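so my prof wants the structure for this chain in the tokens format not the other one, which i didnt know existed until like an hour ago. anyway here's the sequence
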Amino acid sequence: MVSLRVLTGDDWPLWREARLAALADAPHAFKARLGDWPRGGEERWRARLTLPGAHNVVALRDGRPAGMAGGVPGQGGAVELRSLWVGPGARGQGVGDRLIGEVEAWALRSGATTLRLAVLPDNAPAAALYRRHGFVPTGGLGDLLPDGVSRERLMAKPLGRPPDRETDHARGR
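here's what i got, hopefully its the right format
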């Protein structure tokens, strides 16, 4: 059984554990490299979790990180999905779906109209997961990658309004 836990600044050791596991397991999926992160100490790890308006979540199985994702405020009604990772033992079990759903729910509660992300060009499994959740390529190119040639691929999903519970209840939903 996998549970989701929304993180606070005090959860930085759990965030560190998940992030280092993600970078070690799937270096091909992230712009950042494992060697970039062990340095810095508590302040660096805590900084990501205390970014104003951000939403970070870890999927836990038996108290250990099985996945992670973050939501970061953006510009013009958009927010960003970042750092999505599902551990090898949890893949194919809906953990990625739950993490994306959690960040999307946060985005809706935040009043965002668009959820954006950047995916590395060779990460076909991630791109397929995002397409399944309604993300489409924007046609724009993201940041330049360390090879100096390739760029991230940008995807976005328009967001509707959060459901009006009273109206839905009155309609028998």
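also thought this was worth mentioning. Strands lie at 2-6, 55-61, 64-73, 78-86, 114-119, 136-144, 151-158.
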